[in-house]
Structure formats: C-alpha cells, structure tokens
Amino acid sequence: MILLDGKKTSAEVKAVIKKDVEEFVSKGGKKPHLAAILVGSDGASETYVASKVRSCSEVGFDSTLERMPSQTTEEELLAKIDEFNKNADIDGFIVQLPLPNHIDEQKVTTTIFPEKDVDGFHPVNVGRMALGQPAYISATPYGITQMLEQYKIETSGKHCVVIGRSNIVGSPMSILMAKNSKYANCTVTLTHSRTKNLEEFTKAADIVIVALGKPAFLTGEMIKEGAVVIDVGITRVPDDSKKSGFRIQGDADFKSCAEKASYITPVPGGVGLMTVASLMKNTLAAAKNEIYG
Ligand code: GUN
Predict the structure, then answer these.
(1) CA 46, 51, 53, 55: dihedral to nearest 10 degrees?
(2) What pTM does this model have?
(3) Number of domains in the chain
(4) 139 C-beta closer than 6 A to ligand 1
(5) Residue 228's beta-bridge partner residues?
(6) 92: which of 57, 123, 148, 203 lies 20 to 30 Å off by Cα?
(7) Cβ 249 under 6 angstroms from ligand 1
(8) Nearest CA to ligand 1 atom 1
(9) How does pLDDT run across 33-50, given as a tens digit for each residue?
C-alpha cells in the first residue's frame, strides 16, 4: 500500500506556484491576491480559512480575510461580494461554506463574478468545466486529479466509483474523472444515498472516491484488493484522548481499507491539503488572466 501524501504533494505544487509567482512579479506582473469571506465562526471553517490564508503567504500571494458575524443578512453578504467583484486589486475570492441557514448559498455562488470565482462554484465555471472549456475547477476535485497525476496512477479505462453527489465534490468529480485527459478517462459510476446495493459497485471499482460526510463509512470489506481509495471526508468526531476533544475522521475506515488498497489518502494529511493547493493554482491563473483572457 502506498500512502497518497497530501502534505508532500501539496508542498510540491505550492513550490512550483511560488516560483511562478516570483517570475511573474519580477517581470512586472501584479502579486496575486486572494480574498476569503467567512460568515460566523464555525470551528471547521475557521481551520480551513486559516489554512488558505497561510498558504497565500507561503506562495507569495496577498490575502484578505473578511470576517462577518453569523447574524449577517443575505443582503449584507451580497453587498460585500459586489464590493469584492469590483475591487480590481482582488484577483479571486471565496465565500467559505457552509453559510448560516438564512443565507441562500446558490444566490451567493451566482453573485460572485465567474472571472473571480476561484472556487469554481459558479454555474458558468461548472458548465465550462463540464464542456471541457477553460474554467476554474472546484478545488477539491481539482486537487484529487493532481494527486492522481503526481503519483502517476493509471486511470485510463478504469472503473471509478464516486460516493456522494454534492455540488462541490461528488458531481464535478464524476464529470472530471470521465474526461478524456491524462488523469481521467475512467468509466464512472456516481453513487449516492439512494443507490441500491452500493457494495456491488464499490467492490467492482478500481478507484473509489468517497465524499459523503459519514465518518468511517467505507470499510475494507466494501473494496476490492488493489483498489485506489480517495477519502474526501473530514468530520470532527469526539475523542477524549485529544486535547481539543475531537479528532478528524475521514469517510473511509483507514485501517481496514489500507489493508486492501494499492493507494490510499490519509485523513488528515490527504485531500484537504490538495484542495488548498488547488485554490492557490486557481488564484494564480486568475492573476494571470489565464482562464477568461
Ligand atoms: N467548504 C468546504 N469546502 C469548501 C471549498 O472548497 N470552498 C468553500 N468556499 N467552502 C468550502
């Protein structure tokens, strides 16, 4: 079994970005600038946003973190988005999800200009990605494809089973894995909560991508010998042995899956770090106007 090391791989991706930024700036280009809006103070979101801001400084980007209280109205948030859309110094920005229930996520996503939507959540970017046109690709699916590429995992003609159909991971992931490209070219099955006999699919899969948000859902019994397991889950589960009182648990039961898998991502230290590295990639592309010209 080979561990798909997100720490090492994301550091490699970020080192390339850092070099690229230095070159770009030395030739008179503008330092890339990523902004993030965080509404409320959800513990997990705080952690992710802090990691995004830290990565910006590692690769030589400017960053802005806009904190808004959890009582922020939808109108106030949309006004902030409008401000960032118009701010020429900001190359790309994200609104960290989930948002408080009184705010319509779809409205938020569609208000961000596609040209600044480095999360790749806007329908224009999702549509362009699906059609194989230049687009910001949603950071988690993009990070997973980079991980597969970096480890030179053969994907062509393989059967990839995606578990979970969320807008930000499962759905775009299933589209990307079926593309005619070097990290994809798979036969893809998108499974979800209504899938009957899920095990029949997972046991037949060469690559299983689990993005369900259910801790330790995928067990070794559900996969075949030699499968590649990509674990997108990051749930905080209570753990008295930790100072924080919780630990981060993936959607795969690591121990039993690792016994059968050829490759597996750990949690933490796997996909999550690749997500952040991909966001940096998208932001650099935004600063260089590579997607929208
Ligand atoms: N919440 C969980 N993942 C993501 C992500 O990739 N981007 C944003 N904006 N929010 C998230």
Answers:
(1) 180
(2) 0.97
(3) 2
(4) yes
(5) 207, 263
(6) 148
(7) no
(8) 97
(9) 999 999 999 988 999 999
